Amino acid sequence: MTAVYATTADTDVVVFRTRADEVYAQLKRDIAEFRMVPGDRFTENEISERLGVSRTPVRQALFRLQQEGFVEVLFRSGWRVLPFDFDQFEQLYDLRMVLETTAVHRLCETDRRINRKMLSDLAEIWLAPQAQRSSDNTQVAEWDEAFHCALVAAAGNGEMTRVHRDVTDRIRIIRRLDFTMQPRIEATYDEHAKILKAIRANRGDQAAMLLRAHIETSQAEVRKITLHQVHLARHAAG
């Protein structure tokens, strides 16, 4: 078993990663960034040759992705990226709504210890003048995900943060389709700014209302997604 060692940028912690871990991470990125889209079929040999690794770590990575609901094995014909399960996405969005609205209420309670540095960092991005806004859909999608994760993390409940990150990971592939249109990028900036201003003013009910509307809009866009849009996203990703 081949191992990969790495250190984080701000600590001396050594991270042990197997070759299967590396393949798993790469394939998950490929799915999330639409280099592999729902319905795509492939073999272990094809992945092995593309990534320059043996079939063993590829198989281990694929079984892990199968357990997480990203791919399925086909009888005598390789593997396939699973189609979107929209019912599951609806349920995950509902859970996300509960976690995030609870978090913003806590961020507005003055007797709680919260991470104000995280909120200040968010303000630098989302309260910036309009001329400084990014129009890069990939970058804005990443910042949007970081925004929502930071809101929960700043509230200081480690278990809520862990569950929210798991939900975030599972909806990432479809959530990024919400940023293929420029109007949605502009709306995200405006809506995030309003949420942050409400939090800064300790208006918990208002912040939760704005956040709920923001997530519901994104959820509505998800319902409109078609396979054609997925393939267009792959083309746009290059």
Describe this structure in words.
There is one protein chain. With 238 residues, the protein is mainly alpha-helical. It is 65% helix and 8% strand. It has helices at residues 19-32, 44-51, 55-67, 86-107, 116-126, 137-154, 158-175, 182-200, 204-223, 227-237; strands at residues 3-7, 14-18, 41-42, 71-73, 79-81. A three-stranded antiparallel β-sheet has the order 3-5-4. Strand 4 and strand 5 form a beta hairpin. Helix 1 packs across helix 3, helix 4 packs across helix 6 (137-154) and helix 6 (137-154) packs antiparallel against helix 7. The protein is elongated and about 60 Å long. The model is unreliable at 1-11 (pLDDT under 50).
Number of strands: 5
Mean pLDDT: 87
Secondary-structure-based class equals mainly alpha
Task: List segments where confidence is low: pLDDT < 50 over at least 5 consecutive residues.
Answer: 1-11
Main β sheet profile? 3 strands, antiparallel
Run of helices and strands: EEHEHHEEHHHHHHH
Strand content: 5-15%
Q: Give the % helix.
A: 55-70%
Number of helices: 10
Radius of gyration: 20 Å
Shape: elongated
Protein name: GntR family transcriptional regulator
Organism: Variovorax rhizosphaerae
Domain HTH gntR-type: 17-84
Keywords: DNA-binding, Transcription, Transcription regulation
